[in-house]
Recover the amino acids of this structure.
């Protein structure tokens, strides 16, 4: 679909418990980020991203993953994700799929349908933003900027804290 | 999701899988929340090459301890670190008992997970570990067979695709598999099981 709406310039506001961060992320309060459109857009946000986090990357690996929940007022499609090449050389949306028994594999997904009013979760063991060829490790207490690409809403930039586990 | 619901969810998952009906019928605080193999499983006498020493490591716990065996690979950004972090946090929850929990990660992708890479990777999660890099495909397959596990590494259009199991196996000092942590089992549930299993071993000594 041809992009009919302009790319959203968004502001991500992270509310992170300071005490939670001091505890290495194990007991952080939930992280909420509201993505609002710029002044030319209606006040009501079309897309809200909550609970976003990227996993602290273990030593000796150049792969990372980011997770989040997407809420929309209108049906849309997540068609890709991007981070700056100062963070990772390649970014894709992947899904871990369960096979026979307890077997599982990851595969790239072309798009994820986002249904209005139904939260779409990217979470461990399911969909995730996969950061490949990390330029440097994702370190606890830092943040990265992830651009989510939607078919209708365009680009949505989210500030994502690096945590050890889900907030 | 608040953590308080996690053990309940895990329990529900276990119940849904029908693998530990006894655990579902009883008080979750005193029963195992992982699942106990329905048939006996043992890795006694089976060895995998440990790195960086290059020596064979037998897949069994030291006396009075438990060994967690996990098949994974370092290019796995999703399920492997999720499980390793859960194990790390489970150990944090059980205090001094954690000294009696050992971890062995067997890479299913030995071509990329070399003797230099795998030990570094696991050291991100535990100070005590065994980085096992199968020296041959046969070595890997024999180890997997002991646990009923399987994996494959294939190259598709230049990309490496890895299929592997998500279960962590708890092994005792005889090499018997005494509990299994399915993917997604939370740290609290793992801590519950490790506490029960380690206390049983203390009492029987």
């Amino acid at each position: 679909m041809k992009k009919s709406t302009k790319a959203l310039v968004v502001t991500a506001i992270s509310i992170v418990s300071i005490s939670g961060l001091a505890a290495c992320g194990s007991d952080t309060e939930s992280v909420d980020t509201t993505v609002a459109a710029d002044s030319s857009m209606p006040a009501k946000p079309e897309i809200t991203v909550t609970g976003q986090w990227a996993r602290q990357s273990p030593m000796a690996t150049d792969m990372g993953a980011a997770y989040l929940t997407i809420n929309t007022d209108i049906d849309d499609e997540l068609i890709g994700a991007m981070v700056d090449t100062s963070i990772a050389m390649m970014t894709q949306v992947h899904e871990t799929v369960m096979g026979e028994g307890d077997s599982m594999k990851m595969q790239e997904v072309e798009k994820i349908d986002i249904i209005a009013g139904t939260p779409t979760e990217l979470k461990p063991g399911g969909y995730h933003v996969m950061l490949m060829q990390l330029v440097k490790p994702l370190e606890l207490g830092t943040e990265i900027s992830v651009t989510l690409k939607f078919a209708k809403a365009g680009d949505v930039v989210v500030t994502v804290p690096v945590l050890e586990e889900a907030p | 999701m608040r953590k308080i619901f996690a053990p309940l969810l895990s329990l529900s998952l276990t119940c849904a899988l029908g693998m530990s009906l006894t655990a579902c019928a009883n008080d979750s605080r005193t029963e195992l929340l992982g699942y106990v193999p329905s048939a006996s499983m043992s890795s006694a006498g089976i060895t995998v090459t440990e790195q960086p020493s290059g020596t064979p490591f037998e897949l069994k716990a030291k006396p009075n301890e438990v060994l967690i065996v996990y098949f994974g690979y370092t290019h796995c950004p999703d399920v492997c670190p999720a499980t390793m972090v859960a194990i790390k946090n489970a150990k944090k929850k059980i205090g001094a008992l954690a000294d009696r929990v050992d971890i062995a990660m067997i890479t299913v992708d030995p071509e990329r997970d070399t003797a230099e890479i795998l030990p570094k990777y696991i050291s991100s999660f535990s100070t005590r570990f065994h980085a096992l890099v199968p020296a041959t495909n046969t070595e890997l397959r024999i180890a997997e067979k002991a646990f009923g596990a399987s994996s494959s590494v294939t190259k598709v259009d230049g990309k490496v695709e890895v299929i592997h199991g998500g279960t962590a196996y708890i092994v005792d000092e005889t090499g018997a598999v005494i509990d299994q942590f399915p993917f997604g089992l939370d740290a609290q549930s793992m801590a519950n099981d490790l506490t029960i299993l380690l206390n049983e071993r203390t009492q029987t000594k």
